[in-house]
Amino acid sequence: MKAKSIKGKSTEDIKQAIENSISDSFTPTVAVLFISVKQDRKAICELLDSKNIDILGATSCGEFTNGHQTEGEIALLLLELSKEHYTILYEDIADGSLDDTVSRLANNALKQFTNPSLIICSTGINLKGKLFEGEKLVRNLSQNLGPDKIFFGGMAGDDWTMKGSFVFTNGKETNYGLVALVLNSDKITLKGMAITGWKPMGIARIVTKSKGNLLYEIDGKPAIELYLKYLGMSDKIAENDFKIFEELSIEYPFIVERDKNETVLKSPMNIDSTEKALFMDIPMPEGSKFWFTHPPEFDIVEEVIEKASQLKKDTNEEADALLIFSCAGRQPILGPMATDENEGLAEVWNTPMAGFFTYGEFGRVLNGKQNFHSGACCWVTLKEKI
After folding, report:
1. Which residue in 77, 70, 57 sits closest to 4, CA to CA?
2. What count of other Cβ atoms lies within 10 Å of the Cβ of residue 55?
3. Is pLDDT of 237 > 70?
């Protein structure tokens, strides 16, 4: 497999970059495209289509390639793959069922290859303001593909506007759906890891009242009151203070216990003053065990890079390409360290890289099972077997 990463601030930039990349020794067949909602994604897709390049695309909350991180721009990873070794699957859920859609996508992947692995992007928030159910996608996809199958990816963003995100491929686009690059694992190997770096603080807490995304009580006490006290804020928060609250909640999520000693970050999105509850990005069922978190420290990035380096050493393998799906919350929290994290991963694997800041991540923790993540840096390498 051959790969090149390119970037641009406009359609014309990308057109020139593609023309400069294509040569007698490199003819890309696939483009993994991460693009701001401010850009003309239709024009970019038409450009790639004219070059007979298949597209896996998602809108973003910031994009990056080797040595370059942007907001409001365009990033691509161009891959030269044999068309016998991959296919692109697209599903528009529209008014249908997420369960049925995921089942159909999984069955189509298994029809294509007996041993498929996936790079998958879903929408993050649709035009009606509905958040995509990432946990349900991962659970159903794992059940239908089989627990041993590997997939990595992320939920599309929209530059933090929360008005609508999109995934797309050649000639097709949806604000509520999925697109996947399905690979023949007998020919293409995926290796990766999801990691957050946040640390628990204090005693474990228990959710004692919740419904869907609404969290009412923690340890029998009002969730709003307890969380705002943890943030050092008054529980008499005013409507005009909600923006401050939302910014803090990104930095101070909950670490929630889940199966086999794994954890997941879940963040309060805002306060539902009518219901007198915290509105969570991911539901927290009654009985959930969790911890408040320490503010992120400098060693978060070091942990990500060290674990990637150890995995490379343990497997003694190189990579042909690298994709990174990093939570949109990591950028405002980590600042320049978010760039250090992405660049550090590219340096570890010494390969062309592209990625974007997401509204949720799909992948495995080290030696763990397939899961949905929030607040994570989720990376995956691609390597063609010789």
Report:
1. 77
2. 23
3. no
- DSSP-based three-state secondary structure for 47: helix
Question: What span, in angstroms and rounded, lies between the C-alpha atoms of 228 and 359?
Answer: 24
Query: What does the alpha-carbon distance between residue 158 and residue 150 come to, in Å, rounded to a whole number?
Result: 27
Q: What is the mean pLDDT of the chain?
A: 92
The predicted pLDDT at position 363 comes to 94
Better-scored residue on pLDDT, 216 or 329: 216
219's CB contacts (< 8 A; 6+ apart) are 205, 206, 208, 226
Q: What angle do CA 154, 155, 156 make, to 5 degrees?
A: 115
DSSP 157-204: --TT--S---EEETTEEESSEEEEEEEETTTEEEEEEEE----EEEEE
> Which of helix, strand or coil describes residue 316?
coil
Cα dihedral sign for 202, 208, 211, 212?
A: positive
Residue pair 129/363 in contact (Cβ under 8 Å)? The answer is: no
Look up residue 286 and give its two tokens. Answer: 């009654």
Measured in degrees and rounded to the nearest 5, phi and psi for residue 169 equal -145, -170
Q: Say if strands 321-327 and 353-358 run parallel, antiparallel, or are unpaired.
A: parallel
Question: What confidence tens digit (pLDDT) does each residue in 244-292 have?
Answer: 555 566 778 899 998 777 888 898 888 888 999 999 988 999 999 999 9
